[in-house]
Specification:
Low-confidence stretches of chain A: none
CATH superfamily of the largest domain in chain A: FAD/NAD(P)-binding domain
CATH class of the largest domain in chain A: Alpha Beta
Number of domains of chain A: 2
Shape of chain A: globular
Strand content of chain B: under 5%
Structural class of chain A: alpha/beta
Mean pLDDT of chain B: 91
CATH class of the largest domain in chain B: Mainly Alpha
Number of strands of chain B: 2
CATH topology of the largest domain in chain A: FAD/NAD(P)-binding domain
Low-confidence stretches of chain B: none
Mean pLDDT of chain A: 94
Largest sheet of chain A: 7 strands, mixed
Helix content of chain A: 10-25%
Helix content of chain B: 55-70%
Oligomer: heterodimer
Largest sheet of chain B: 2 strands, parallel
Strand content of chain A: 15-25%
CATH superfamily of the largest domain in chain B: Ferritin, core subunit, four-helix bundle
Shape of chain B: globular
Number of helices of chain A: 12
Radius of gyration of chain B: 21 Å
Order of helices and strands of chain A: EHEHHHHHEEEEHEEEHHHEEEHEEH
Number of helices of chain B: 12
CATH architecture of the largest domain in chain B: Up-down Bundle
Chain lengths: 580, 387
Amino acid sequence: MSTDDDAHVHDVVIVGAGLAGSVIAAELAEAGIGDVVVLEAGNQAYFDWSPTHGPESGFTDRRDGLLQTYFANPDKEDNSPYPDLAYAPSPMHDSDTDYFVQPPAGQRFDSTYMRVVGGTTYHWLGIAIRLLPHDFEMRSRYGVGVDWPIDYEEIEPWYARAEQELGVAGDDTCAGPAWRSTPYPMPPIPHSYLDERLKEAVASDRYDGPPVEVTPPPVARNSIPFGGRPACAGSNNCTPICPIQAKYDATVHLKRALGQPDVSGRRVARPVDLRLGALLVEVVADRDSPQRIERLEYIDVNGGLTRRSIRARTYVLAMHAVESAKVLLSSNGVANRSGQVGRNLMDHPCQMTYARTGPVHPWRGPLVTGTIETFRHGPELRERAAIRPEFQNTGWSWSTFSPGTTVSAAIDDMLGQGLIGRAITERIADDLRREVTIDSLLEQLPDPSNQVLLSDDRDPIGLPRPKLVYSIDGYTHAGGDFAFGLARSILTAMGADPEGVAATATYDGAGHLLGTHRMGDDPSTSVTDSFGRCHDHHNLRLVGCGSFPTIGTANPSLTLVALALRTAQDMITELTGRQS
Amino acid sequence: MTPQPIADRHELMDALTTACELEHGLSLQYLYAAFTLRSDPTDGLQGSDLIRVRSWAASIFFVAAQEMMHLAQASNLLLSIGGAPHLARPDFPQPAGHYPPDLGWDLTGFDAATIDRFVAYESALPSGPGPAWRESIGQMYTTIADAFEQLDLPDDELFIGDPGDQITGEMVDFPLLIEVTDRSSAVEACRLIMVEGEGSPADHADCHEGIFRRIRSEIGEVDEPARPVAPNPVLTERGGEPHGTLVTDPVTRAVQEICNDAYEVLVLALLGFFAGGSRDPAAPAVKAATLQLMTTVIRPLGELLTRLPIGPEHVGLHAGPGFEIGDTASLPPHRDTARRLMAERLDHAAASARRLADDTTLPPSRTSVLDGVAANLQRCSTLLWSP
């Protein structure tokens, strides 16, 4: 490798063109920050764009190739439509091909992400839900976890903006404890037939106190045309890819940052400079003034593997909780006087309960259109994890890999009984239309021993692979036990045979990777302040889900965006000396 | 010509009645075009072409659904000032000049000319001289909104309709639907329809016009995205002359008769629902029946018709749903009687579908659709009336 310095000092270098990086890039470009570079490991944008055409690129979405890859891939998992880059692998669920280094047995960290332009939002579910006020004060209120350095009052206006930016469809009457200053930009996605049957079955029910209310979750999925994107057509394919971009993904903001006009025809003041195939390897502090980051070192994979440097007034790492931690741990102690970098790795373990009920006709509509929000808070959280049940419009797909398993089981049974032909198809149809899976997201508390480390194993270009140490404690397991009891009572009310209600043997991951560079007021126990600024380096910001001190039971992307918007405004104020 | 504002309640009712017909007619034209798209994997398109066509179909179905919402919204406006729900409309085709904007009404398959016409329907641009409210759909609603704001009547004399007759969003699964009870809600209802149709100064993309313009810009990317269909397929003649393209193939005629019967029952059921029937104890079942008629009967039959020959006079052309309403279609005032009669119509239609499904000369792909439709018609019949 050779060193090739970019001696120019840019205003801002953002690393990662996923959700946080794209939102901040768009905000800076909108504010007219003159010289913003975005480095991205992925080597291809799935929309019309080229560096030479810049704002005139057209920006037409081109996900057809991703869909073709998915159709052709026999392994239908979250990352199936996307390239696994030879120089920058993405983690997979399959332990044999996994990029993570983990013990072969026992509780594994089961969530993945993608290193592509647009990041993991390509295959997120789209749930865009707020944390509740108590989630920011778990230590003060319930004596567990830690408190955030900000409260709900502080973040609420940023939630409101985030909902507008992503385009969130929700029911204003279902806010619960999370009070709202603004209505949702779009009406809710309609309930599925399954949800309607659920609502009938649990009407006026209570379970251990709280009411069992099925409500539509707020989602960054269009219920009406919004942002130049169509309304959801119910393809039942949000994960791993929405075929029509009715579901928000980060390319919306990335395109805007690159100069795509918005729906009123307005472009950002100063488009950003996107550089693909740029793999960050080290953050280098100034030798004489270590509270200042002097440069970033990255590998440019275009036309070989060239090591380059880039300098800026401010740096933003937006590479996801694992990659950001991995690079910092490779950077000679940068940002880590607290020793917290890489620690407190969290996910929402998913307790899955499943049974056959009366006909619910799954595999229609978005993957989740009904949830129960009433078990996210309460004094029980002193003793056990909060839970947030979701109802899967995909039968037993997640819990048992149906329909494949259902079809093969039915054929086995029927052949054993000597029946053939129409009897088998009718049996399969009947089984499939009655499948219900309830998955409950469980809160996981920060535990410093759950962490990202550097493995001695190397990736294909010689960088350390992430070694994950991860376990689930009794607090979360107690929440899982509670979730199973609730789910069993619901399924039974829907007509399931109590003996036929089953749960998966282990908890799956929710695809939420959090906590590895948490924010806080105390530099000895946290990595950044509430604006993502490192306690150790005034010109280094860490953004994304790694910032979360605790995680509640909310899918984290909306909070991620709210925090990113707040960080962006702080950066604009700092860079321009004026209030945005 | 100086634009003439609406002068009194009578003229406002006229304009809102036209609005109801207009929304109804637009919805059917959009559905007809969407039914012709080759959006099924068995239709010959593959890969990115199929994905593109399916996204067009989804977008057009979405716009058609919003037109149905606009119909309910216009109906709420009409009922608020004492009018009666209005779901009658003349059969297709209609010549230019009958409705704003000054364009003809035709059931035509998906192609560039059809999408151009849809863009023109939804465009904010006026299309010609005439009374202000006839220049464009947006102008029509602007004039209606102005009338609600400016008619020189006290509020309690303008809004003489029963507020209990207003259709709520929850009743019809359109959460944005506005109950019209005063001048501000009336104006807001008009504004909602305009924004969804032609957009706003801040957003020209997320509206019907924007959607059709986007589809129009993409049409060249797919070869033959739609099945070839005749315009305005009809079963009946006026004065000895067919006013559209006469369907002569006997099987196609039989399928179209079933589709027309289901459509007519749907219209009557909705009429009853809009005319205070939403407060009837049977309303949930009627609502379920209307939804199922649309999605499990009319849609599959509509798509099936675009696969069936219209007749030997038009080699290579297929038919489509004509959405013809018989001259005798009316709703008895007694709700139980009305539901009983509607159920009887559906029973007959189910029997016809079953007979056709048993026709061994038809390929299995056709008979399986008819089999399913027969079962669905029977289910809708039971929802409407169970002795």
